[in-house]
TrEMBL record:
Protein family according to the UniProt entry: Belongs to the peptidase M48 family.
Cofactors: Zn(2+)
Occurrences of domain Peptidase M48 (ranges): 123-317
GO MF annotation, one: metal ion binding
Any Pfam family hit: Peptidase_M48
Keyword Metal-binding: yes
Keyword Iron-sulfur attached: no
GO BP terms in the entry: proteolysis
Note on cofactor: Binds 1 zinc ion per subunit.
Name the record gives this protein: Plastoglobule-localized metallopeptidase 48, chloroplastic isoform X1
Source organism: Ziziphus jujuba (Chinese jujube)
Gene3D superfamilies: Metalloproteases ('zincins'), catalytic domain
Keyword field: Hydrolase, Metal-binding, Metalloprotease, Protease, Zinc
Length: 336
């Protein structure tokens, strides 16, 4: 999900990008990295290009705030960071110094190695992004398509001046158009929630703990674990953003299922309901004391929740009063 400045968290930098190693070079990813089991999905056959006819929804969340759909754990950790005296000012100062340089580096990299999507270039993809951004009430960032066999997407917004989203060609091949738009909405969720900025602030706090004598290392390790928990909660938040655009939980769950074990040749045989049943069986298997311990040991250092857990979470939220209230408000807004 992110590349961070100290080795214990340097887990998932883009293999095709510059290794910035900076506290402001946070790439927020949809699918995690190969170390987390979402590895390369190779095409066994080429699919015929299809039309992008995919109007997500006629509704628009014109007054949507990030906290309207933010996951409770994401909200809790963000509030904690906001309450730390001086952290916001220090973070903004560092972003002001290094942010513009980092953004320029990434801009040149993207222009040099990817295809910039626009009205005149991959116009259907451009329209999917415009529609998703309109629904979520956010300015659409630049969108790039990059050649890669690893199905993934990520976003970066250092100082908010030149945010962008990158999607890999293998992801385009793997997903339907509705699913692809859900991925774009997920990345827009990161931008709307300022996850990159708050992640930078969290890294500053953790780095500061490492400099403390005595118990500094222990404190820093505890902060790292808390940071990972927040990163996982941030992903759940952005899955909710994807659902707000798709307005069909099966679309979002299908994306997660395909990232877990899909490929173009098997896509039509995959079953969302069976994947949800798999998620329930995982919950049952990990409910015992031993299962709980194993589950926590396996996930404590992950920046992304397991796909089955994300599927269960989005399925539950789609049935919640909060989600239905948001949809009702959106319908009322669009009718004005």
């Amino acid at each position: 999900m992110a590349s961070v400045p100290f080795p214990p968290l340097f887990l998932c930098s883009n293999p095709n990008s510059l290794a910035l190693g900076s506290i402001v070079s946070e790439k927020l990813r949809f699918g995690g990295c190969r170390a987390f089991g979402l590895g390369t999905v190779r095409k066994s056959r080429r699919r015929t290009a299809t039309s992008f006819v995919c109007k997500a929804s006629s509704v628009t969340f014109r007054d949507l705030d990030a906290d309207d759909f933010r996951h409770p754990l994401d909200k809790q950790n963000t509030l904690i960071l906001r309450a730390i005296p001086g952290l916001n000012e220090l973070g903004k100062a560092l972003l002001a110094i290094a942010g513009s340089v980092t953004e320029q580096i990434m801009l040149l990299e993207n222009i040099g190695t990817s295809v910039l999507v626009s009205k005149n270039q991959l116009s259907e993809l451009h329209q999917l992004m415009i529609e998703a951004a309109e629904i979520l009430n956010i300015e659409p960032p630049d969108l790039y398509v990059r050649q890669s066999p690893v199905p993934n997407a990520y976003t970066l917004a250092v100082s908010g001046k030149q945010p962008f989203v990158v999607i890999h060609t293998s992801l385009v091949e793997l997903l339907t158009r509705k699913e692809l738009q859900a991925v774009l909405a997920h990345e827009l969720g990161h931008l709307k929630c300022d996850h990159g900025v708050w992640l930078t602030f969290a890294n500053i706090l953790t780095l500061g703990a490492y400099t403390l004598p005595g118990l500094g290392g222990f404190i820093a390790q505890s902060l790292e674990e808390q940071l990972f928990r927040w990163l996982r909660a941030a992903e759940l938040t952005c899955d909710r953003a994807a659902l707000l655009v798709a307005q069909d939980p099966k679309v979002v769950i299908s994306v997660l299922m395909k990232l877990a074990g899909g490929c173009p040749s098997l896509a039509e045989q995959l079953n969302v309901d069976a994947f949800l049943e798999q998620a329930r069986s995982y919950e049952k298997a990990s409910s015992s004391p031993v299962g709980w311990y194993i589950r926590n040991a396996q996930t404590r250092q992950l920046s992304h929740p397991l796909p089955v857990l994300r599927a269960r979470e989005i399925d539950e939220w789609s049935r919640s009063t909060d989600y239905r209230t948001l949809l009702k408000r959106a319908i009322q807004t669009s009718a004005v």
